Amino acid sequence: MKTLYFDCGMGAAGDMLTAALLELLPDRDGFVEELNALAIPGVNYIAEKCEKCGITGTHMKVTVHGGEEDSDRHHHHHGSMGDIRGIVSGLPIPTMVKLDIMSVYEEIAQAESHVHGVPVEHIHFHEVGTMDAVADVTAVCLLLHKLAPDKIVASPIHVGSGQVRCAHGILPVPAPATAYLLRGIPIYGGEIQGELCTPTGAALLRHFAAEFGDMPVMRISAIGYGMGKKDFPRANCVRAMLGESEDPGDRIVELRCNVDDMTGEAIGFALEQLLNGGALDAFTVPIGMKKSRPGVLVTVLCRENQKETMVHLLLKHTTTLGIREFPCRRYTLNRTVETVDTPYGPVRRKVSSGYGVRREKYEYEDLASIAKAQNLSLSELSDEISSPYKRVSAIAPQV
């Protein structure tokens, strides 16, 4: 499995992630030229060699209208989601990358909305809304599209300590928006004074990293060092390591209980609540119980951190008096959703791959809608659009 690991022992920022990923490419100069050819308004990328604590890496310098913005200054440029969407929609990049960019900004917008107590549509970005941040997010999304790792893992994130000057004044580290973006993610502070993880860095890691923890066992093929602007007692960098790792499978929990005194409608309602509550799967199997009574075996699959929630939902919505727990692993194919152009318009297609296997299946709702409109059967329509059509977009892997 092609695995990318981010070492965030000195936090993460957009420019640091960009530079670390850039060092993983064989043609770095060519990619910088490609970035500048995007013609993001006023933006110019310059990859500079940089040394921190005796380690050589790359600093990605982004200038806007000839000047490099300082993250410590109070910026006065504000931008809305509409402004950013307009910029991104016009970039000559794959649709998949555009979707990733906007998803990262949606994360940031949700954080700003929570912190400031205003609806997302009324959010006006400060530091993260400037063109250098748009440049950083675009570069990272495009780099990851090119590197195409099967899995991204990040270490716990060092956020720094003390205070940081932002658009709204002096705030504690991590800044409120950054702290919100990092909820549920392992973070820590320390003796380093200053902001080590920025909102942009936090949003990028939240969007792309599938796991946060120790580096998995892997055979490393490339290492990149992305340097920050500031100097600290420790090397101020993000380290990215690309290599091959074994698929250990996901650690999950299987919960089971028997019921024999519930209606079909009540069981169906219970399954719905379990799935809405975050279960990976929930299903039933008919069983024979004591005294030949017919019953139902209810099974729920969930992650370890969801176990208590699922137990509560099972006890609340079923009549069971006890639940059995079985720790297990699951091995899954990588799943994405593509969009293909057909004579009848765009149709979504689910693609599953891995372990030398590839499967494709068109989205039923899309086929059903077209079949009704064209007075065709599902089989006729499926056969007609099965000819290879150009893939035009994709979204992040599904779980």
Short description:
With 399 residues, this protein is of the alpha+beta class. The protein contains 11 helices and 22 strands. The protein is globular.
Shape: globular
Low-confidence stretches: 71-78, 388-399
What level of helicity do the residues show?
25-40%
Radius of gyration, CA atoms, in whole angstroms? 24 Å
Number of helices: 11
Describe the structure.
The protein is an alpha+beta fold. Helix content is 32%, strand content 34%. The chain contains eleven helices and 22 strands. The protein has helices at 14-22, 28-37, 81-89, 95-116, 131-147, 176-181, 199-208, 264-276, 307-317, 364-374, 378-385, and strands at 2-7, 43-52, 55-64, 67-68, 151-154, 157-158, 160-161, 163-166, 169-172, 187-188, 194-195, 211-212, 218-227, 237-245, 250-259, 281-288, 294-303, 324-330, 334-342, 345-354, 357-362, 391-398. Helix 1 packs parallel to helix 5 (131-147). The protein is globular and about 80 Å long.
List the helices and strands and how they pair.
Elements: E1 2-7, H1 14-22, H2 28-37, E2 43-52, E3 55-64, E4 67-68, H3 81-89, H4 95-116, H5 131-147, E5 151-154, E6 157-158, E7 160-161, E8 163-166, E9 169-172, H6 176-181, E10 187-188, E11 194-195, H7 199-208, E12 211-212, E13 218-227, E14 237-245, E15 250-259, H8 264-276, E16 281-288, E17 294-303, H9 307-317, E18 324-330, E19 334-342, E20 345-354, E21 357-362, H10 364-374, H11 378-385, E22 391-398
Parallel strand pairs: 1-5, 5-12, 6-10
Antiparallel strand pairs: 1-14, 2-3, 3-4, 7-11, 8-9, 13-14, 15-17, 15-18, 16-17, 19-20, 19-22, 20-21
